[in-house]
Amino acid sequence: MVEFEFWWLLVIPFFFGLGWFAARIDIKQIISEASDFPVAYFKGLHYLITNQYEKAADSFNEAVKLNNNSIELHFALGGLLRRTGQIDKAINLHNDLLETRELSSHQRESVMAELAQDYFKAGLYDRSEDLLSILRNDKYLQFSLGTLLEIYERQREWQKAIQIALELEKNSGVSFRKAISHFYCELATELLIEKKYIEAKELLDKALNEHKNCVRSNILLGDISENQGNFEDAISFWKKIEYQKPEYLGLVAPKILNIFQRQNKTNDGLSLLSRYYDVYKLKTLLDILYESIINHEGPAEAEKIARNELIQRPSLNALDKIFQAKAMAKDDAIEDIELIQQTIKNALGNRKFYVCSECGFKARQFHWQCPACNGWETLPSEPIDIILDE
């Protein structure tokens, strides 16, 4: 059994006092460091937390005036100025740092990166590009390449966009094959306007090599074949979409049916689209089939399609088609058909939208690239019904 040593009683208060003294030093150090920041800084943090960005910008601006030596405060203020749309002030702030301060190489690069973002936000792409071309070291490489890619996309400089995307893919490990395939399609589209079909085909083949599921490429290749009178080739290209992304068949269904009609093979075209609809249940295909059948086979056959759709997937759209067919057939069994139709149309309204899966942007027509967030193929190929708040 270990005997208790009474001298420990003398040591314990000593260590207790040493710990208290050390704690006092830490507290004083913390208070000293905190006192270096103006009160406006903490006000700014509060406004940031509560999403009051304009008030936060004002507070950080005051903090910078009181503690002008803090580069970090300048960065915080610059970011807030950008966020609140005060781009000119952000540009002046960062230019002033570059021109009047003695900065380390690391600090200078950080300020240049901030200024490049300012110029980008302001739409001064040439100035932003000049700065980003300098910031190509390891720390800022991916940031520079990513921003340059956005610049070239917005300026529609597709060849430069391809080069930057390949470099960014190599350095980030993230695939940009889908985007690159669309860059080639954009270049091909420009050539199609000039009717340079051979060169356009070469670019579209490159698009497919980059991304085998590039539906857009096969659509454009089919368009070229149709313009050159090669109808069988056109149909062949458009049929390939079923094995890429069948949900995009609605984009080419009118083209397919048009060619079959020009060849006096309307029934063959309807048969093909009917198969697509039976398998994939695309609303766009139903609309095309309904309109074509009502014109070529009469309202009675069109009503059968609409009725079958109403039974399987009840909707106002299918119900509207049934009453439309009955009205065209002059069915007197139902009174006030036109009034019923009008009521349904008022209920439906014009509420079909293509909604971006990335940012939620709503478009009335299909876009390969979202006009809001610039994402490729983020809008669905089929519109959806949305009831907008009045």
Name of the CATH class of the domain at 175-244:
Mainly Alpha
- Oligomeric description of these chains: single chain
Distance between the termini: 86 Å
Number of strands: 3
Whole-number mean pLDDT? 82
Strand content: under 5%
CATH topology of the domain at 175-244: Serine Threonine Protein Phosphatase 5, Tetratricopeptide repeat
Computed CA radius of gyration, to the nearest angstrom:
33 Å
CATH-defined architecture of the domain at 175-244: Alpha Horseshoe
The major sheet is characterized as:
3 strands, antiparallel
How do the helices and strands follow one another from N- to C-terminus?
A: HHHHHHHHHHHHHHHHHHHHEEE
CATH superfamily of the domain at 175-244: Tetratricopeptide repeat domain
Q: Which segments are poorly predicted (pLDDT under 50) over 5 or more consecutive residues?
A: 1-16, 20-35
Please, how many helices? 20
Give the structure's gist in a few sentences.
The protein is mostly helical and 390 residues long.
Description:
With 390 residues, the chain is mainly α. Among the domains are: 175-244, Tetratricopeptide repeat domain (Serine Threonine Protein Phosphatase 5, Tetratricopeptide repeat); 350-390. Helices cover 71% and strands 2% of the residues. It contains 20 helices and three strands. The protein has helices at 8-34, 39-49, 53-66, 71-83, 87-100, 105-122, 125-134, 141-154, 158-172, 177-193, 197-210, 215-227, 231-239, 241-244, 249-262, 266-280, 283-296, 299-312, 316-328, 337-348; strands at residues 352-355, 362-363, 384-385. Strands 2-1-3 form a three-stranded antiparallel β-sheet, with no helix packed on it. Helix 6 runs antiparallel to helix 7, helix 11 packs antiparallel against helix 12 and helix 12 packs antiparallel against helix 13 (231-239). The N and C termini lie far apart (86 Å).
